[in-house]
Design a protein that fits this description.
8-stranded mixed β-sheet; 14 helices; single chain; 4-stranded antiparallel β-sheet; elongated; alpha/beta
Length: 485
């Protein structure tokens, strides 16, 4: 995968004292180090949006903070994400003439997750994410004007940065981190979280892959992302996903979540794994003409629609996995192509060149290019265009998304399939982003934010809520960690 979807600093020989501490710890994994190699107030694990926002907030609160990143470049999954951010910002939805509120955002998020999410966490997210938008502007993110309904978003409350993708958040946060003197250290994989006792007491620090022990005087913030890039771990909870591709960067493999569980942390919702349309089975590349979903329909290899394209992501996942060869085709006209290119212009034009997106002046010609029955595809398009007039869809597409006919040549289509995208389960936190143990008690000195956590999205994450989540709970975790005594 490439960075435009949604390269890779501290060395030196260990001292004799560090060697002794390493030996003592290795001999008894339940013991704490007798000496520490590095000491900070706050150690943040992971340099995606959650980790960087936690580190920045903690640093600005006066704490001596550091961010540790296991890969060779910062950014995590935020760097490769599409960048869409849901927030019910009053000025934005009023300007768009849309009814919205944090309360409606909360209600829709709870319903979309089958009410399996923690209501207090959802309310905290939706009520505080408008302030996250303002905070991002403060650190240098510029947003494109307007809001829209992102794929799987269920309501038009999403916005994107000017550069269109999640990499813009990372660039802005990294520039700001450098400005305030927050160190972000790459090639530092955390392999253990150290607690006073195996299942009790405070969290004291971390162990990295170089067998160094880093002390956290105040707190550790786990922000290492989920495990969607770990097919084996995903298969424990949903065997259908084993052979699928993933949209994630290669570092999303779940080790830090295992560390949290290893010191008594409670994990919830691990079988809630989200997939989204992306690279089809057998293909190495893809196009994206389904972000502006109001312009797009999905056809199977038989040339028929099989799902409401604005449905929940888990509904679309299950319906797509049931299709022939688990491969389907988003279809749009030139207006839809232009609208989607506001988000994936370079990728879509590259896909036209490498044969993963097809273009034709008629629906019949397009059907032949993607090898579906032309007469069936023509009938399907005509039926859909009639639905735009009637505002009624037997598959359940909502009237607000029955807004654009597919009539203006040229027409576009390309193969897509389901890819492992987001793991909704993870470490259980409270509204202060403190990690809870298996009895529901706070683990002192341990915070978590972002995809490493569970309980915020329930069984299904709304599109645009992940970026909202990471910057909202990242800020909360950073502020809480800085306030630790």
């Amino acid at each position: 995968m490439t960075l435009n979807r949604r390269s890779f600093l501290v060395g030196g020989a260990a001292s004799a004292a560090a060697s002794i501490s390493t030996f003592a710890h290795a001999a008894n994994p339940c013991s704490t180090p007798t000496t520490w190699d590095k000491t900070y107030d706050i150690i943040v694990i992971g340099s995606g949006g959650a980790g960087l926002s936690a580190g920045i907030v903690a640093k600005e609160k006066g704490a001596n903070a550091v961010v540790l990143e296991k890969l060779s470049i910062p950014g995590g999954n935020t760097m490769v994400s599409g960048g869409g951010l849901n927030a019910a910002v009053e000025a934005d939805y009023k300007k768009a003439g849309i009814e919205d509120s944090p309360q409606l955002h909360t209600k829709q998020t709870m319903a979309a997750g089958d009410y399996r999410a923690d209501p207090a966490l959802v309310a905290t997210l939706c009520e505080n994410v408008p302030q996250s938008v303002e905070w991002l502007k403060k650190v240098g993110v510029q947003f494109k004007p307007g809001i829209y309904q992102i794929y799987g978003g269920l309501w038009p409350r999403c916005r994107n940065p000017v550069g269109q993708s999640g990499g813009d958040y990372i660039k802005a946060c990294m520039n700001y981190a450098n400005k305030i003197g927050l160190p972000v250290l790459t090639n530092h994989k955390v392999v253990g979280i150290i607690r006073e006792k195996p299942d009790s007491g405070r969290v004291l620090g971390v162990e990295d892959g170089k067998k160094e022990f880093w002390k956290a005087n105040k707190a550790v913030v786990a922000a290492a992302g989920g495990f969607a890039a770990n097919p084996t771990m995903c298969s424990y909870f949903d065997p259908r996903l084993t052979k699928l591709n993933t949209t994630n960067q290669p570092g999303s493999t779940g080790e830090v979540l295992k560390c949290i569980q290893g010191i008594g942390g409670l994990a919830v919702g691990l079988d809630y794994i989200q997939c989204i349309p992306w690279t089809a089975p057998g293909y190495k590349h893809t196009a994206d003409i389904f972000q502006a979903i109001e312009y797009t329909i999905f056809l199977n290899k038989e040339g028929k629609r099989y799902v409401a394209e604005d449905a929940r992501r888990d509904v679309i996942r299950d319906a797509t996995l049931a299709q022939t060869d688990q491969t389907v085709f988003p279809v749009c006209d030139t207006d839809g192509f232009d609208k989607n290119n506001e988000y994936y212009n370079e990728m879509n034009h590259r896909a036209l060149e490498n044969g993963t997106l097809f273009k034709a002046d008629t629906i019949e010609e397009l059907a032949k290019l993607i090898k579906v029955p032309p007469e069936v595809m023509v009938a399907t398009i005509n039926e859909y265009n009639a639905m735009v007039d009637s505002k009624k869809d037997p598959l359940g597409r909502t009237p607000i998304m029955l807004s654009h006919k597919i009539v203006k040549a040229p027409f576009y289509a390309g193969p897509i399939g389901m890819c492992r995208h987001h793991t909704m389960g993870g470490a259980k936190i409270n509204t202060k982003a403190q990690v809870l143990d298996r009895d529901g008690n706070v683990i002192p000195g341990l915070y978590a934010a972002g995809e490493v956590t569970g309980g915020i999205h329930g069984s299904n994450r709304i599109g645009g809520n992940a970026i909202a989540d990471i910057f909202t709970f990242g800020r909360i975790a950073g502020e809480g960690a800085a306030s630790e005594q």
